[in-house]
Specification:
The protein is mainly α. The chain is built from 10 helices and no strands. It starts with 19 loop residues before the first helix and ends with a helix.
């Protein structure tokens, strides 16, 4: 999610133009849902992930439709379920196989659905949606599978949330220097706040929950901060290219599900890889 530099207040919100009380309330509810499932029944947590990412997929398909780009939701959602299940019960090879199969399904689906005009455009957007966020999100199943998978998932989510919070606070208090024209409200100061917060949270949780070394947690956190920022910028590029302001409005104070998932899915793969290598 984009950080906000200081500005005038909006109705019912803060001086950042964001409805902060609503955002905090939604964050608490989502956090309780995650903790209440990941530490009880892992498969139930996967259902939560599939539901959230499924809504994100629908938001993307609707956004593409504003530019007459046709992405069929049904095969993408089926691929999402298959990739989550394949990753959790079969491992990385099953995840890769499910992705390849449903990418091929999407190419065939478009072949027989709307003629030749716009085939490359629609097929490319469809496979892109299958990859982002559907395939990337399936790495959470790989992260969750080990006996200590609940701790690993918590570390991954906490690091990504720390990036958002650290960047938000630093951007509001100290943000002066624009990071990129892609997202004008992002600042170098905000990025620094993200890195500091993520590094601290990663180091703490890895030592506490996994018995790892401080440097291992710090590395996971620092890399998470950078890639969470990349995820935000990717979504900003999508919205700018499509000429829309938001991908959704389902979460008060946050926007759509993709506004929550953008940084999570880009942080997930390296978080899984590092934790797999370290532990």
């Amino acid at each position: 999610m984009e950080e906000r530099t200081a500005g005038t207040s909006s109705s019912g919100g803060s001086r950042t133009g964001r409805n902060l009380p609503a955002a905090i309330a939604v964050g608490v509810i989502l956090g309780a849902l995650v903790l209440g499932t990941v530490y009880t029944i892992k498969e139930l947590f996967l259902l939560v992930v599939v539901g959230a990412v499924g809504v994100g997929v629908l938001e993307l398909t609707k956004a593409f439709a504003t530019r007459d780009i046709k992405v069929p939701a049904v095969p993408v959602l089926a691929g999402l379920v298959a990739m989550q299940a394949g990753a959790y019960w079969g491992g990385p090879l099953w995840l890769l196989a499910a992705f390849a199969i449903f990418a091929f399904v999407l190419l065939i689906w478009r072949m027989f659905s709307d003629g030749t005009n716009g085939y490359v455009r629609d097929a490319s957007a469809s496979v892109f949606t299958l990859f982002y966020p559907a395939m990337l999100s399936a790495f959470v199943a790989l992260l969750l599978k080990p006996d200590d998978g609940d701790h690993r998932v918590l570390i991954f989510i906490a690091v990504t949330v720390a990036s958002d919070i650290g960047g938000y606070i630093a951007g509001v208090l100290f943000g002066r220097h624009q990071l990129t024209v892609i997202s004008p409200k992002k600042t170098w100061e905000g990025l620094t706040g993200s890195v500091v917060a993520c590094t601290a949270v990663g180091a703490w949780l890895v030592v506490w929950l996994l018995g790892g070394e401080i440097w291992q947690g710090a590395l996971i956190g620092a890399l998470g901060a950078l890639l969470a920022t990349v995820g935000d910028l990717v979504e900003s590029m999508i919205k700018r290219d499509l000429g829309i302001k938001d991908l959704g409005t389902i979460l008060p104070g946050h926007g759509g599900l993709m506004d929550r998932l953008d940084s999570l899915v880009t942080t997930l793969v390296p978080a899984w890889l590092l934790m797999t290598l370290f532990f």
